[in-house]
Amino acid sequence: MITAGKINEAIEELKYIAKFNGKKLSEESLKKLEAFRSINEKEIEIEETRKRRTTSCSSQQAFKRAMTSKRIIFRVINCSFCWMINTLIYYGLSMSSGSIVGNRYGNFILCSLVEIPALFLVIKIMNNCGRRESQCATLLVCSSLCISIAFVPKYAVILNVLLYLIGKFSITISFVILYMYTAEMFPTEIRHSLFGICSMFGRIGSMVAPQTPLLVTYFGELSPLLLFSGS
């Protein structure tokens, strides 16, 4: 136990053995064990400090190396743009659901409920079609449906709402895929740092999304959908 660094356990074990045999450890022996424990604790503390410094330095070096790689930089830019667009459309469709025909409260509830089947199907879609293909397909479907609503007459309420919900269904799948796909794009050592950078740019879309319903006032009812489609 002493060689393994378990000084406290060793002292307790020796005391138990001495008590069991009707003996008593001498004060000198206890002092030696206590001194050895103090030395061992200091060595452990020094070793942990050294490991923390080494880990910190290696992480910084790995990040610097990654920033000199054109491939990693391109991935960061690409993923950051995808995050910004996905958050804009995902939150924008939820907040703009009141601008389409029909009951605005019912539309908002349906927009929330349609995410549930999307969350269940996303794993199967990714496993069968792959990350990249699924990401591209869902974004294209969402874009096509957003712009197609402009050509559907207003009296076709069910068709308008159905297209809108399928668009929200698609962007939900795309958003979930993006979380997993981004994490798989970067080296393990700096994955969290680069993932955080991409997510940070995604917050730009989150900040812009609440302003999209205001476009209806200035540019018409379909302006948010045209923005989402163009994005």
From TrEMBL:
Presence of the UniProt keyword Transmembrane in the record: yes
Protein name as it appears in the record: Solute carrier family 22 member 15
Domain of life: Eukaryota
Membrane-topology descriptor: Multi-pass membrane protein
Annotated source species: Schizaphis graminum (Green bug aphid)
Gene Ontology MF annotations: transmembrane transporter activity
Main location: membrane
Membrane-spanning segments: 72-93, 105-125, 137-156, 162-182
Alphabetized UniProt keyword annotations: Membrane, Transmembrane, Transmembrane helix
GO cellular component term, pick one: membrane
Lineage: Eukaryota, Metazoa, Ecdysozoa, Arthropoda, Hexapoda
Intracellular or extracellular location(s): Membrane
Pfam families xrefs: MFS_1 (PF07690)
